[in-house]
User: Fold this.
Amino acid sequence: MSSSLLSSGPQLSQSCEPSLPCCADGGSQLSNKAPQIIGVRVQLEMHALWHQFNQLGTEMIVTKAGRRMFPTFQVQISGMDPAAEYVLLMDFIPVGNERYRYAFHSSSWLVAGRADVAAPSRMHFHPDSPARGAQWMKQTVSFDTLKLTNNLLDDNGHMILNSMHRYQPRFHVVYVDPAPNSHLNAHRNFCSFSFPETRFMAVTAYQNHRITQLKIASNPFAKGFRTTDPQEWVGNSRALTMWCPPEGTAKPGEKRSKGSKTSTREEDSASSLFHPCKDTLELTMERKGEDSLLAPASFLPEPCYWDCAGSS
Assistant:
């Protein structure tokens, strides 16, 4: 699936139900879809949390090694043919053609120029694909193995994004047609969904401290960073601070190793030194397992793409 294919489709349909976005754009395009695709509906999980982040301006960390998303992209699917097989996958498309910078004095994002050259386009296949519709519909589908990176030479299959650019995650459902020469009808066998509240800015360090606070308050893997009630984190306007000891300096309560020349005064000074420490919070637990795979670029023909917006 090429980047030009996925970014050149018609405008988002306004005819889809807000709560359960549909895959068709109506009219003749609806009749062109396979029966196994027409009825598919998708609902975004954790919608309230996504909405909270969206109001603040969601940011997602990208690193060389790859970082998982939080909130995690999760959906509940209905309307599939229980006996048919489907492949589920995701991609990320740039929103606009601009690069941004964060203005701390106004706590807002400002356009800083034209977008950088687009990163290599990739797809992330859900590791359970392909599977029958009955399996997909019986539980929440989670893309918790997906990772974001800014390494243009990444060979781990992570999603490559440009930092300080805005992106829209997209979710695709592909019917595995067992018929001979099914590739000739590939345009009938897929369906795409996007949720505007899941848009985010790719960053190497959180810019808006309220985003940091909300992630700590709502991410179960970040509870070690909480120093007060989660509700107080969200409403607190103070910048998050962490102790970042100078290299070779012991943390408070730690004994110096033998041979250390650091004086007691220097240790006491280091113990009271607190300042903002960007890009050092690992807010999601790394888990071993399969990561994203590279997608074949042939199953979606360019003239036949469309997208439907919706929110749960």
